[in-house]
Amino acid sequence: FHIAMTCTYLASKLDENTRRHRDVLTVFDRLLKKRSDTNKLHIRTIDPHGKRYPVWKENLFNFEIRVLAAMGFSCSIESSHKYLLQLLVDLDAKQILAKQAWCLLNDLHRIPNIINYTCLEI
Question: How many helices (H) and strands (E) does the chain have?
Answer without folding.
Answer: 5, 0
